[in-house]
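Lab meeting, action items carried over

1. Structure of the two-component assembly. Owner: GW. Status: complete.
Input record:
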Amino acid sequence: DQQVKQNSPSLSVQEGRISILNCDYTNSMFDYFLWYKKYPAEGPTFLISISSIKDKNEDGRFTVFLNKSAKHLSLHIVPSQPGDSAVYFCAAGGGGSNYKLTFGKGTLLTVNP
Amino acid sequence: DTEVTQTPKHLVMGMTNKKSLKCEQHMGHRAMYWYKQKAKKPPELMFVYSYEKLSINESVPSRFSPECPNSSLLNLHLHALQPEDSALYLCASSPRGGTGRYEQYFGPGTRLTVT
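Predicted assembly:
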């Protein structure tokens, strides 16, 4: 059973426009959510996180929104840049473990110049 | 500084070889992790060390043997691997469990090929 789902395997946007990546989860025990960016053959890079007590967290061009009632979070990137092209993983923490992160399958973002 | 280093960057080994992967962090983090990642898949947790003690073993075959010599170092000893073990092996660290924060910082990985 997949507890964290990223239903869009890929997304393509124009440079300068907004990129919106979506993530849904099923386990209501999750209380912390993270986004990672990954280039091929490199380790994931932590981007931004949000606690379940908040509904929005912003860091520069990156904003994460959390809708607890819908069990849905999204990552907004504004403006998108070609260097943002990568695979983005959504992850959730909590759910009874202090250490485990449950990852989604990732969304490949391509930002076209 | 959120750097986790891993060596070697690439490793090719035969099925009868013994090799080790190394990971180091100097952020004062007290939890360290080994993950395995196959292409187009999310990272898959293998082991967690907390305060230098093995906290989680995700039913990993015994041909993978983790070791945590001190709070900054993490090793993964490999022996008698199979070709299907070929993958990117990632090390990560986090401040500690129970803080209500779950950020893990990943190293660049070791690309392992088993021939």
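2. GW to write a short summary for the group page. Key points so far: The radius of gyration of chain B is 13 Å. Chain B is about 0% helix and 55% strand.
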